[in-house]
Design goal:
With 744 residues, this protein is an alpha+beta fold. It has three domains: 223 residues, 3-Layer(aba) Sandwich (Rossmann fold), CATH 3.40.50; 256 residues, 7-stranded beta/alpha barrel; 168 residues, no CATH class. Helix content is 20%, strand content 30%. It contains 14 helices and 42 strands. It has an eight-stranded mixed sheet, with helices on both faces. Strands 16, 17, 20, 21, 22, 23, 26 and 27 form an eight-stranded mixed sheet that branches. Strands 36-37-42-39-40 form a five-stranded antiparallel sheet, with no helix packed on it. Helix 2 packs across helix 5. The longest helix has 16 residues. The two termini are 52 Å apart. The N terminus is likely disordered.
Length: 744
């Protein structure tokens, strides 16, 4: 009772002083993105998703998509919403006034409004144009006013660049694109780019601005897109523009690219081509591509985990009776560094075809293609040879057939849960992840089936950043919403896009290394993902490319994990809640398997370990600070302080982790100021810790109760304790690491 009375008195005192009494609430991370199109339009094709979402997610923001011409959400009670992002192509639409008023209501609710391209409220086809004065009433709240003139002829116009960090990021047009006149009317608004029109009486016009209530990029000034020439090039720097427009400096960034201070690595293989005969021979005999993959690649890189996802039909004798295919699967899954995945049961090519499935229609499509089609060779007995009923033509996109195998009618339960059971039964290994097949565009019920089965899902996205895809605009987001579900994208594209859909340039998957480099420097926007198909071992050139890529990975400082580990961490990006506790201190909740927070522009920022809880360590890199969270702590607290020099260690009274190849957890501080933690991973164990001061430290690695590696380390001014156990610490073995100070 005395405690309750004291709490009550404290509340009354706050009220008397006028202080608010409110529950802690997460920092808002959601951005409402408006996109064009009706319900039949694919979200995956919207430029907001394809081009803008990745930099928004890099800044820690979650993008929630809504169609501009549909009813829009009420934001008055949405404390999770940070702002609204609109990148519309049409200046007019039905309900334009309704949309304008919704923008105003968003600002009324304290949300930011960030506009690329047209605002989309110039006119309603049914009611006519909306007066410019009415539109400017909205725009003045962002700090600008639009003039009534459109400058189409820009010869003689000249740029004035006020902020080189924002303008000319990947491309700067020599001749300025057309634009509407825009003037800044709020002294708190910053003009990053303006243009002198060269027309008498027009003066200058702002093109890119940010301010307290959001920001605007004039149409045609955000990005250059030419689909025919495969061009996407940012004209503004989206990372910097969105940072300022959405004011994300106060937001710690949940990060899926990094684990224990190193760039995260994972690899996965789709089962296509499992039984194809390879050009590469083993013992001078022709064998399947899957066997070549096993013997020439996977078995030779035990330090690099890989998830192998067979097509269940090829391991099921009732569908495909191939004992060699099953024997190769046994070989893969006998290896400890191989994780079991599923590439579905019958390998759907076009997922939308099966959302409203008609077995009779599928039979007609199969019969129409005929058994001479390459996919059907050897399966004549499986085709119903009764009288053909051609029916209506199917819309299968680039595919000739709805799926690869059709012994039985399509069944979603079989495709997901059934494939997990069959592959598990055939291999003796629990299946940990579902890898989408075909066009990798599953419908909502299919994604929901993976969640119901208790496994994550992955594939799609096709991230590339190389000489053929020369822009961050080709770097996909972490995932895509599918109705109320979420599909995790593969972090990098597979060999299919490098080899012109497996028609040539079979060596070209080696160019993945360029995407790895460009997505890591100067901004780390993706983990490393080596993703390919079984048929990559069909050709000599493609097999050599695989080996080259894997050998390159051995030279990189990475933290290798399984594909399911990454997919679960990616899902954690969207569930993480960040509670601001004041004085540069945050509590992290609901993060799932995500274990890294990133702080940008943090060269002189350090973790304050004395005020933190559940933090393993931290590592500065590329101007950011990557903070490693302890998986054993459900609600860690991260506190920051200043450091006087970028190379100074963080202040801590005990050793903390700088980086590690093996994931680390369960950190405890010993009585003498040392630490003990758990670790387990792939390949040789290498890691670095930072000691609280100079002196002599002893490091021990303990496995199954025995010390397998021990070292005394003389710690100098850099305070680093390097651990390199080589082969002494067995990979994939639970290990205790203990660091103790043993002398000055």
């Amino acid at each position: 009772m005395p405690l309750l009375r004291a709490l009550a008195l404290a509340v009354l005192a706050l009220v008397a002083l006028g202080g608010p009494v409110r529950a802690e609430s997460p920092i808002p991370r959601t951005v409402i993105a408006l996109i064009e199109g009706d319900d039949e339009s694919r979200l995956r094709d919207a430029r907001s998703h394809q081009i803008a979402t990745m930099p928004l997610e890099h800044l820690g923001l979650i993008v929630e998509y809504h169609r501009a011409d549909q009813p829009l959400p009420d934001l008055s009670g949405r404390d999770d919403v940070r702002g609204v992002f609109t990148w519309l192509s049409s200046p007019s639409r039905p309900g334009a006034l309704r949309l304008l008023e919704w923008f105003e209501s968003a600002l009324d609710a304290g949300k930011k409004l960030v506009v690329m391209g047209d605002l989309g409220v110039s006119a309603d086809p049914e009611t006519g144009a909306i007066p410019l004065q009415r539109i400017n009433r909205l725009l003045r709240r962002i700090g600008v006013r639009m003039g009534g003139e459109f400058i189409a002829f820009t010869a003689g116009s000249t740029y004035t660049v006020h902020d080189k960090r924002i303008w000319g990021f990947e491309h700067q047009p020599l001749v300025p694109p057309a634009y509407s006149l825009m003037q800044v009317v709020d002294p708190e608004v910053t003009t990053h780019l303006e243009i002198a029109t060269g027309h008498t009486g027009h003066g200058t016009s702002a093109l890119v601005v940010t301010g307290p209530n959001g920001g605007i990029v004039s149409p045609l000034y955000a990005v250059e897109v030419d689909h025919g020439s495969n061009i996407r090039r940012w004209r503004v720097n989206p990372f910097e523009f969105f940072r300022l427009a959405f004011a994300t400096d106060d937001l710690p960034k949940p990060d899926t690219t990094t684990l224990t201070g190193r760039r995260l690595y994972y690899s996965h293989v789709d089962g296509d081509g499992w039984r194809s005969v390879s050009e590469v021979k083993i013992d001078d005999e022709s064998v399947s591509a899957a066997r070549v993959l096993l013997e020439r690649v996977v078995r030779l890189f035990p330090d690099l985990p890989v998830t192998i996802a067979p097509i269940a039909a090829e391991l099921d004798p009732d569908w495909i009776d191939d004992s060699d295919a099953r024997e190769v699967a046994d070989g893969f899954f006998a290896l400890p560094h191989v994780e079991a995945g599923s590439h579905t049961y019958s390998h759907p090519f076009n997922w939308s075809y099966f959302e409203q499935y008609n077995p009779r229609h599928e039979r007609d499509v199969v019969q129409r293609v005929g058994i001479d089609h390459p996919i059907l060779k050897g399966y004549a007995a499986l085709i119903d040879d009764t009288a053909h009923n051609h029916g209506e033509e199917a819309d299968l996109g680039k595919y000739a057939l709805p799926r690869a195998f059709f012994t039985r009618p399509y069944d979603l339960d079989r495709e997901i849960a059934g494939s997990l059971a069959k592959i598990g039964q055939a291999t003796g290994r629990e299946v940990k992840v579902l890898q989408w097949s075909g066009d990798t565009t599953p419908y909502e019920a299919a994604v929901a089936a993976t969640r119901a089965a208790g496994i994550p899902n992955i594939n799609g996205g096709d991230t590339r950043f190389d000489s053929d895809y020369r822009s961050y605009g080709f770097v996909a987001p972490i995932s895509v919403p599918v109705g109320d579900e979420r599909q995790i994208y593969a972090s990098m594209s597979n060999e299919n896009t490098y080899t012109d859909l497996w028609t040539g340039r079979f060596y070209a998957f080696r160019h993945l290394l360029e995407t790895v480099r460009r997505t890591g420097l100067p901004i780390r926007v993706k983990p490393i993902n080596v993703y390919y198909h079984s048929y990559s071992a069909e050709k000599v050139a493609s097999t050599n490319a695989l080996i080259q890529v894997h050998e390159a990975m051995r030279g990189k400082q990475i933290t290798p994990v399984t594909t399911s580990d990454f997919a679960r961490a990616a899902g954690g990006f969207y569930t993480t809640r960040l509670i601001a506790l004041g004085d540069r201190r945050w509590r992290v909740e609901g993060r799932g398997a995500l274990q890294t927070l990133r702080f940008d522009n943090a060269s002189l920022t350090a973790v304050d370990f004395a005020r933190s809880e559940g933090v393993l360590g931290a590592r500065p890199a590329q101007g950011s600070l990557y903070v490693a969270l302890d998986p054993a702590v459900a609600r860690p607290v991260v506190a920051l302080t200043d450091r006087s020099h970028p190379l100074d260690p963080d202040p801590a009274a005990h050793p903390y982790l700088l980086e590690s190849r093996w994931p680390v957890s369960d950190l405890t501080i010993t009585e003498d100021g040392g630490v003990e933690a758990r670790t387990e991973g792939f390949g040789p164990l290498t890691m670095t810790w930072i000691a609280p001061r100079e002196g002599t430290w002893q490091v021990r690695l303990i496995q199954d109760g025995d010390t397998v590696w021990r070292a005394r380390v003389a710690v100098g001014p850099d305070r680093r304790i390097a651990v390199d156990a080589g082969e002494d610490a067995g990979a994939l073995t639970p290990t205790t690491i203990r660091l103790d100070r043993v002398g000055d």
